[in-house]
Amino acid sequence: MEAFQEIKAHKINFLKTFFIYLMFLVIGLGIAIPGPTLLDLQIAVNCSLEEIGYLLPARALGYASGSILGGLIPEKVDKQPFIITFMTLSAVFLGSLPWNRTLVGLIATAVFKGLFMGIME
């Protein structure tokens, strides 16, 4: 019962904490999804396993670049608009990933998705 009173007294802080946990859950899911679906994506773009294998390092390259870019955001700037923007962009690119029908489009989408996820983290 005390927990509910604490939540009621600090609604905004509770919601911020909840959405931060949700954001990291989505980042984890976004990282985990392409691995098991690699063969399905290979069939969708009609390429070899070696060619579709470039998808994972491309996403990792985007993620590493995004982590570096995210570190350049100044400490004194409000980070909430950045988080909301890049979370939305990451969701859009994650949702568009299975709809790509070319290997180049698929890899480009994975790079941008990794970039936005890296900036968020």
UniProtKB/TrEMBL annotation:
UniProt GO cellular component terms:
membrane
Domain of life, source organism: Eukaryota
Give the keywords, sorted. Membrane, Sugar transport, Transmembrane, Transmembrane helix, Transport
Per UniProt, subcellular location reads as: Membrane
What PROSITE patterns does UniProt report for this protein, alphabetically?
Answer: MFS
* Major facilitator superfamily (MFS) profile domain: residues covered: 16-121
The membrane topology term of the UniProt record is:
Multi-pass membrane protein
Entry keyword Membrane: yes
So where does this one cross the membrane? 12-32, 103-120
Gene Ontology molecular function terms on file: transmembrane transporter activity
Which InterPro entries does this chain map to? MFS_dom, MFS_trans_sf
Q: Gene3D superfamilies of this UniProt entry?
A: MFS general substrate transporter like domains
Protein name (record): Sodium-dependent glucose transporter 1A-like protein
Q: Which organism is it from?
A: Leptotrombidium deliense
Cite the source lineage: Eukaryota, Metazoa, Ecdysozoa, Arthropoda, Chelicerata
